[in-house]
């Protein structure tokens, strides 16, 4: 076959033969030929492409704008670790063998409870499963130790011996320690001890007393008011004590001697229109009442004095008369008024 350098000639030769001719190409310009030769020479001198694999430390992340980053999927595959498991755990710290096992304790435990030392058996601390002590020494938690190696509990140890005595043999504390041990039992969440203490004095009596005080929802607020008024008056007068007038009454409406035989229930009933005629506020500092219960005025006075004593406040009370406010017809208020003397020092 022969190539014809002239463009556009598709005819046959002079003999009239119908041979198929190859397509012809026009010659390249000299400048293009020079560029092709230079490209071939440079291609021969270029180094073969290399692939760089970058390993990063755990927790390091690659930024899209880094110089070594590439969007080529092939290069991304080369950068991935060979092991699939390694890619899942490279950001997690190695697990210590100690973390996978529960902590073991000796049979005899030495304790440091707020600076007081105790020694007991491990089974004693684990006697009741749902307690704080059983959870602490279950092996699932880390317990700090003191310099001598004793397990440390940051709690007052004055009543911890009573806690251990109950765990050992079910022994209950003396009556004067019941309230304090009850608070410690609440902290350590020892349910059986709480149930036993609430069925003994003085906590049983406290439950009965609280049932009565629940009839007076304003009781705690009035108690705070007594303290605030007494403190303010003592500071104003620069005095050692302060006096208050307090009205304590059980019935909401007064009863005449003629009506008393009809009073056969805890509450004397009158119509609403009559009840409005007896609406009255005595001229006192604080008032308690009325309530519907068997407990009388003296029972409430005892509660007030006792609760003030729990706060370290000395209170004395005496009846100084009754409210003689005239209400209507032959009715007078007749509510008893007591003078409370609050001594501050």
Explain this structure:
With 345 residues, the protein is of the alpha/beta class. Helix content is 34%, strand content 14%. The chain has helices spanning 30-45, 73-79, 84-89, 122-125, 132-136, 160-169, 178-188, 191-198, 203-213, 219-237, 272-276, 297-310; strands at 108-113, 116-121, 151-153, 241-248, 286-288, 314-322, 326-328, 331-332, 336-343. The strands form 3 sheets. The chain has a 4-stranded mixed beta sheet. Strand 1 and strand 2 (116-121) form a beta hairpin. The longest helix has 19 residues, at 219-237. It is extended. The N and C termini lie far apart (133 Å). Mean pLDDT is 77; it is low at 1-19, 61-71, 82-100 and 256-268.
Overview in brief:
With 345 residues, this protein is an alpha/beta fold.
Layout of helices and strands:
Elements: H1 30-45, H2 73-79, H3 84-89, E1 108-113, E2 116-121, H4 122-125, H5 132-136, E3 151-153, H6 160-169, H7 178-188, H8 191-198, H9 203-213, H10 219-237, E4 241-248, H11 272-276, E5 286-288, H12 297-310, E6 314-322, E7 326-328, E8 331-332, E9 336-343
Parallel strand pairs: 1-3, 4-5
Antiparallel strand pairs: 1-2, 4-9, 6-9, 7-8
Helix pairs in contact: 7-8
